[in-house]
Design a protein that fits this description.
It contains 11 helices and 21 strands. With about 450 residues, it is an alpha/beta fold. It folds into 3 domains: about 170 residues, FAD/NAD(P)-binding domain (3-Layer(bba) Sandwich), CATH 3.50.50.60; about 110 residues, FAD/NAD(P)-binding domain (3-Layer(bba) Sandwich), CATH 3.50.50.60; about 100 residues, 2-Layer Sandwich (Enolase-like, domain 1). Strands 1, 2, 3, 4, 5, 6 and 16 form a 7-stranded mixed sheet that branches. Helix 3 packs across helix 4. It is globular and about 70 Å long. The chain starts with 5 loop residues before the first strand and ends in a 22-residue tail after the last helix.
Length: about 450
């Protein structure tokens, strides 16, 4: 066997890269991980964690109003301090960076600060030196994308910059229809900004269940968000204290900030991959097989850079499978079936399994169970917020194929039910489960009559 400096060299210290590094080291591998920006990757620094903290902050205004209106609380005029929130958020992120460093150190993984590139099937270059490795792992994640066809798009910010703004924009235009766009629309609106969201298609959140998409659009408009579908900016101009966007219908919008939340692209450029024979798709995604191996057998890739399912838990799952495959004599192919997901919009969405459209495309007969109702918390207030609960069931086997929710704590609720959907439980088994009353979640085990079938 060739003598290498490392058994595994990981490029990228995000959630997937760190987990693969630590687990491989626990199996006895000699491991190094290189990171050019910050430990924890997108999720910890400019993704899941700071985003959820901002969502929490933005929800308090509505909750304070409900408390005063319906629940007997008296509070003064609320005031929001954006700089204090960002300072506190930055402190927490710095703490998490330290936690990640401690995890790597405690696992015996060598962490290297700097940009690493692949210079051979078993060789990397970093900081003017080269190192050899039996296996190389690409875990470099993704990067925010600005559509180049928009004239003046350089005047727009991305979500990366939105987490570090000096001030809360009083007027915000958000371009995009994915989860980042709808989440930031809710964040800025909840903090008091006037928000317009533009999306090029007829309805946002493509790939989610249509009932969820339509329900959320109604809820966001009810909260005062100016949703414009089939609408895109063609030109962005910088002006005094803000930007002006000219839209495809000729109208104009002025704002303090324009946020391009138009997707993220795999961060695979300039890593030397193509030069050593690693195949990348047209969008930059590293092509891998079922075991996360690239077209060069000694080079592997996991997480967003592969553009399979771009979620932190998925990257961690892929990392666990890879470390076991390479260093624990336990080949494991990651499963991407029935992956639960949440959108931390306002109200939030939770989903696991097949949408109604996906189920109808794959199963001859499908039953739909759906309920839209006002939650108990809102009954003492003037709030018109509604929850939506939905089950998609295969009529032949009675198996629950998909479970979808829009409403308070949807992510927390769907996480529990994801176990049932993943396990292939039937609608009858849902029905046999006693509810916890009064809760929102009980609706999923008390839905009795299908609303439609095929």
């Amino acid at each position: 066997m060739a003598d290498y400096d490392y058994d595994l060299f990981v490029i990228g210290a995000g959630s997937g890269g760190v987990r693969a590094s630590r687990l491989a080291a626990s199996f006895g591998a000699r491991v190094a991980v290189a990171e050019e920006r910050f430990l924890g990757g997108t999720c910890v620094n400019v993704g899941c964690i700071p985003k959820k903290l901002l969502v929490y902050a933005s929800a308090f205004r509505e909750e304070l109003g409900e408390a005063q209106e319906g629940y007997g609380w008296s509070v003064g005029e609320p005031a929001f301090d954006w700089p204090r929130l960002i300072e506190n958020k930055n402190r927490e992120i710095a703490r998490l960076n330290g936690v990640y460093q401690g995890l790597l150190d405690g696992s015996g993984v060598e962490s290297i600060e700097g940009r690493a590139t692949v210079t051979g099937p078993n060789e990397v270059s970093i900081g003017g030196r080269t190192a050899s490795a039996r296996h190389i792992l690409i875990a470099t994640g993704s990067r925010a994308f600005r559509p180049p066809e928009i004239e003046g798009v350089e005047h727009a910010i991305t979500s990366d910059e939105a987490f570090y703004l000096d001030a809360l924009p009083e007027r915000a235009v958000i371009v995009g229809g994915g989860y980042i766009a709808v989440e930031f629309a809710g964040i800025f609106r909840g903090m008091g900004a006037d928000v317009s969201q533009l999306y090029r298609g007829p309805l946002f959140l493509r790939g989610f269940d249509d009932d969820l998409r339509q329900h959320l659009a109604g809820e966001m408009r009810a909260r005062g968000i100016d949703l414009r579908f089939d609408s895109v900016p063609t030109r962005i101009e910088a002006g005094a204290g803000g930007v002006r966007a000219t839209l495809n219908d000729g109208s104009q919008l002025e704002a303090d900030q324009l946020l391009c939340a138009t997707g993220r692209h795999p961060n695979s450029a300039d890593l030397g991959l193509e030069a050593v024979g690693v195949e990348c798709a047209s969008g930059g995604a590293v092509v891998v097989d079922e075991y996360s191996r690239t077209t060069v057998p000694s080079i592997h890739a996991i997480g967003d850079v592969t553009d399979r399912i771009n979620l932190t838990p998925v990257a961690i799952h892929e990392a666990i499978c890879l470390a076991n495959t390479l260093f624990n004599d336990r080949p494991m192919a990651p499963s991407h079936e029935a992956v639960p997901a949440a959108v931390f919009s306002q109200p939030p969405l939770g989903t696991v399994g097949l949408s109604e459209a996906e189920a109808r495309a794959s199963f001859p007969e499908v039953d739909i169970y759906r309920s839209v109702f006002r939650g108990l918390k809102q009954t003492l207030t003037a709030s018109e917020t509604r929850c939506l609960m939905k089950l998609v069931v295969d009529r032949a086997s009675d198996r629950v194929l998909g479970l979808h929710m829009a409403g308070h704590e949807a992510g927390e609720i769907v996480q529990g039910f994801a176990v049932a959907v993943r396990a292939g439980l039937t609608k009858a088994q849902f029905d046999d489960t006693l509810p916890i009353h009064p809760t929102l979640a009980e609706e999923f085990v008390t839905l009795r009559e299908p609303v439609t079938g095929s």
